[in-house]
TrEMBL record:
UniProt domain Kinesin motor: residue ranges: 31-350
Protein name: Kinesin-like protein
Superkingdom: Eukaryota
UniProt record, GO biological process: cell plate assembly; microtubule-based movement
Organism: Oldenlandia corymbosa var. corymbosa
CDD domains registered for this protein in UniProt: KISc_CENP_E
Residues reported to bind ATP: G115, Q116, T117, S118, S119, G120, K121, T122
Length: 939
């Protein structure tokens, strides 16, 4: 049996016709119905002469009385506020009925009670459940035209373990992700409900099975979250044109109550239960808060707890939801009640998108078609108004349809089997690393926190996996498609290829320059030699930095290696730049080497004229020459052309001139030619040559400058891409989780996120038995500065993984675990105990007698008596014990800091001790230099 949205492929769910019972709109976006119920003072509260701290302004508004010197809270306004005298009947009618009966119209519905322990959740949910049963069966009774089928299932989430309340023996149930149905509970029992009495009986069984325990606040405190699911399918009894039936589920959720350790006086098993309860409620609060702030498209951490995973569709999804927030009126609980009201305030902003679920049961459809065939066959046997051929074709058509349906059914079954086997594979794949390395981070965590090669292999896995989350679209200059590490590596490689091409072009340009200078025999020998040297150097450099032609994206090399490689190439790029500088200098020298005709001495002029007489090509070839030089600058020119044109312009080898172009004496020996040239206007020729040469050199100079710019641009783009890779890794489940929008969180949003993350971190420290000194240092160091963001995220991820790991150890069967599963947990607890003993010793060293007395008084530490531990140890044992009470946390941190000797702001610690040498993520717009990136990766 499956738990989740109705067990029907979404493709089969259609919008309802207008004639659905209930008659409401087909889909509706609406806010969650939020009401608040305040129970009467309990006998215990009355006995303690506790005061009523709340005032009911009207049916919708509640505010705190001004009983203490504290600022009063409120007024708070909700869909309804029920005062102390309100009956269950009224709470149901005004706070739940409308939502509950939606299930009869094919709309999923969820009703849950939220509130502090002993605030009346179970009391309220019982009332709602009973009234809902009455309403449902009354509706069934007055709707004879429809046939109703009810199914019942129930589970509890106890210490983050899902248990079937109809079959406890089945142990811990797994939650599976179904792309269409959302979260489903594997192998859960589902009972067909016969009637109202049977339904009450089943609910009774569940209540008896549920984990209940005694705490200081409640004799029968629910220690688990209970989720009852009633699935109702209804269809018209009379066969009509409409084959579809309405299918929806009603979830009745009785949450365990949030509790303060200091008030419930819990320890041992109760304390552990309380921690799990608080943690999952904290996730629920976070989910609600995020949904209420309109972050529907951003990351909502449903997966952080089993409760929110199961309730996902009820929170911002395809369901109508009503929440009854319960609270005690007592002054003692005013702080907790305020928390409840804040939760309720967030919840009333959450919008759901419920729709009518219509299904076509395949069985029914096949049955219908068979009946149709039978009818047609009967008609065929009897005299018919139509020709027998018409009937036959109709029959054929129907049979074909049946066959089609069967094929579709088989295909659906096949797909289901594939999905199941994939899930099974995935489950095994997840289990494997556990067995081999209990202490290593999970693959997913590794993926989030590092660039190890394993990630690449994960990405190649055929198993379904979570998609990389969206990047914050910060680098507008970088292609949008670069949204996965492999894409980015691909981009980087492409840029490198381009860079290589540019290098080659530069080389060709230089070669031409070289040729020209050599063949003209003009300019200084030094310049010619230096260009020749540059040419060979660049060639050499290209050979070294040769990039593999083939971009092999299956390469197992990790991104980290990739970035290290890029980093090492920096020197190559720098030297390319340097060499280009040199080329430019050489060109400048060359320019200098062309003395203007006017400045030439008569000797120079003669020599120049002599040289010009032996030009390898005549001046009529000037156009060609320009082509040679210009071609590399022109983007459209191909290197091939350049080489060819160079060859074309070479002097024919059989001419006498070509015999001795390499030295001046041989040039001078070619007297007939020079004599012949004498007829040319030498002065004019000289001018033209100078002009052409200067133009060539300008052209090369411009080209080199352009090359330099292009190399710089490429390098910049490459670094942007690297940054993107880094940011993506860092953001994968945190910053990018926060928002899809391309905007930075505003300081106000960051403060909210910070508070939220801090609460989660505190809770996780508690659950994972993290060292008190670490907690204190971290708490005092990270106080919400924007630059703390990355530290907070990393700490949260580390702890979330650790908690999950510990939970897995706790839930796994000993056979699977091999070594002592509890050793890790117990050694952490032992270390914590030793730390408390150490802190206790420091109490008398670091605090004056007066300070000690004040603390004992404030922290309710009774005086020492026989058999009681020392007061200082009692004090140490109280520190950091209530993760829900932020005041307690703050004071605990201050005391530990004093005992250990940290300054007010943890001055003995620095953020770097958390080994995160990052720049502030809020400076993300500023350029992250290469060295910083290298540091970041600890390359
Ligand atoms: N509206 C009410 N009127 C009278 N009694 C109430 C009301 N609400 C709760 N109570 C009583 O208060 C006590 C605590 O209620 P309940 O067990 O429902 O609290 P809870 O919130 O479910 O606690 P927990 O989270 O610990 O399970 C019970 O004895 C219950 O009968």
């Amino acid at each position: 049996m499956r738990f989740g949205t109705p067990a029907t492929p979404s493709s089969m769910i259609k919008k309802a016709p207008s004639s659905t019972p209930g008659g409401g709109p087909r889909t509706r976006e609406e806010k969650i119905l939020v009401t608040v119920r305040v129970r009467p003072l309990s006998p215990k509260e009355q006995a303690a002469y506790d005061l009523i701290a709340w005032e009911f302004i009207d049916e919708h508004t509640i505010t705190s009385k001004n009983l203490t010197h504290e600022r009063p809270s409120g007024p708070y306004t909700f869909d309804k506020v029920f005062d102390l005298s309100c009956s269950n009947q009224k709470v149901y009618e005004e706070g739940a009925r409308d939502v509950a009966i939606s299930v009869l119209s094919g709309i999923n519905a969820t009703i849950f009670a939220y509130g502090q322990t002993s605030s009346g959740k179970t009391f309220t949910m019982r009332g709602i459940t009973e009234n809902a049963i009455l309403d449902i069966y009354e509706h069934i009774a007055i709707t004879p035209e429809r046939e109703f089928a009810l199914k019942f299932s129930a589970l509890e989430i106890y210490n983050e373990t899902v248990v079937d309340l109809l079959n406890r023996d089945s142990g811990s149930l797994r939650l599976l992700d179904d792309p269409e149905k959302g979260t489903i509970v594997e192998k859960q029992t589902e009972e067909v409900v016969k009637d109202a009495q049977h339904l009450r009986h089943l609910i009774g069984i569940c209540e008896a099975q549920r984990q209940v325990g005694e705490t200081a606040l409640n004799d029968k405190s629910s220690r688990s979250h209970q989720i009852i699911k009633l699935t109702i399918e209804s269809s018209l009894r009379e066969p009509s044109g409409c084959l579809r039936s309405l299918l929806a589920s009603l979830y009745l959720v009785d949450l365990a109550g949030s509790e303060r350790v200091s008030q419930t006086n819990t320890n041992g098993a109760r304390l552990k239960e309380g921690s799990h309860i608080n943690r999952s409620l904290l996730t629920l609060t976070t989910v609600i808060r995020k949904l209420s702030s309109g972050m529907r498209s951003g990351h909502i951490p449903y997966r952080d707890s089993k409760l929110t995973r199961i309730l996902q569709s009820s929170l911002g999804g395809n369901a109508r939801t009503a929440i009854v927030c319960t609270m005690s009126p007592a002054l003692t609980h005013v702080e907790q009640s305020r928390n409840t009201l804040n939760f309720a305030t967030s919840a009333k902003e959450v919008r759901n998108n419920a729709q009518v679920n219509l299904v076509v049961p395949q069985k029914q459809l096949v049955k219908h078609l068979q009946e149709e065939v039978a009818r047609l066959q009967a008609e065929h046997r009897s005299p018919e108004p139509f020709g027998s051929s018409t009937l036959r074709s109709l029959l054929m058509e129907k049979e074909l349809k049946i066959q089609q349906m069967e094929i579709e059914m088989n295909e659906l079954k096949r797909q289901r089997d594939i999905a199941e086997s994939q899930l099974e594979l995935e489950r095994r794949a997840h289990k494997e690393p556990k067995g081999s390395n209990h202490h290593g981070p999970s693959r997913q965590v590794v993926k989030c926190l590092s660039f190890s090669g394993e990630n690449e292999s994960i990405s190649e896995s055929p198993l379904p996996r979570t998609k990389p989350r969206k990047m914050i679209g910060r680098q507008s200059g970088v292609r949008q498609s670069s949204n996965s590490p492999s894409m980015l590596v691909h981009e980087i490689r492409k840029l490198e290829m381009r860079q290589k091409q540019l290098g080659e072009e530069a080389n060709r340009a230089l070669e031409l320059l070289h040729k020209e200078v050599a063949s003209h025999r003009l300019g200084s020998q030094d310049a010619t030699a230096s260009i020749a040297k540059l040419l060979s150097e660049i060639k050499e450099m290209q050979a070294i930095s040769c990039i593999p032609e083939k971009i092999d994206m299956k390469d197992k090399g990790s991104l980290k290696e990739e970035i290290a490689r890029l980093d090492s190439q920096e020197s190559t790029i720098a030297s390319l730049e340097e060499k280009l500088e040199n080329v430019q200098r050489s060109i400048d020298n060359l320019v200098m080497c062309y003395p203007s005709g006017d400045e030439m001495t008569p000797d120079q002029r003669t020599s120049s004229l002599k040289k010009k007489k032996v030009l390898p090509f005549s001046l009529s070839n000037a156009t060609n020459m320009q082509n040679i030089i210009r071609s590399p600058c022109s983007p459209s020119s191909s290197s091939c052309k350049i080489v060819e044109s160079g060859a074309e312009n070479r002097a024919p080898e059989n001419t006498p001139r070509s015999a001795g172009t390499n030295n001046i004496s041989s040039m001078e020996a070619v007297t007939p030619v020079s004599k012949h040239s004498n007829s040319v206007d030498m002065r004019k020729m000289q001018k033209m040559f100078k002009k052409a040469a200067e133009e060539n050199i300008r052209s090369i100079k411009a080209y080199v400058t352009e090359l330099k710019e292009r190399v710089a641009k490429l390098q910049y783009q490459k670094q942007l891409l690297v940054c993107q890779v880094l940011q993506m890794e860092a953001n994968e489940s945190s910053a990018a989780d926060e928002t899809d929008a391309a905007t930075e969180p505003s300081p106000a949003t960051w403060q909210l996120v910070f508070e939220d993350q801090r609460k989660q971190i505190v809770m996780l420290w508690h659950l994972c038995h993290v060292s008190l000194v670490h907690r204190t240092q971290f708490y005092l160091l990270f106080k919400g500065d924007p630059s703390d963001q990355i530290y907070m995220e990393v700490e949260l991820r580390r702890l979330t993984w650790l908690e999950q790991h510990l939970a897995d150890l706790g839930n796994a069967s000993p056979a699977l675990l091999g070594d002592d599963p509890a050793s890790f947990v117990s050694s952490s607890i032992r270390a914590l105990k030793q730390e408390r003993e150490y802190l206790a010793k420091r109490v008398s060293i670091k605090l004056s007698a007066e300070e000690r007395e004040m603390l004992y008084l404030k922290w309710n530490v009774p005086s020492e008596g026989k058999g009681k531990p020392k007061r200082r140890l009692q004090l140490a044992n109280k520190l950091w014990t209530d993760p829900l009470d932020m005041q307690h946390i703050k004071e605990s941190a201050e005391i530990v800091a004093k005992l250990v000797g940290f300054g007010d702001s943890g001055e003995n610690a620095s953020k770097e001790m958390f080994e995160l040498n990052f720049v502030s993520p809020c400076d993300k717009k500023t350029w992250m230099g290469w060295n910083l990136i290298s540091n970041l990766l600890h390359l």
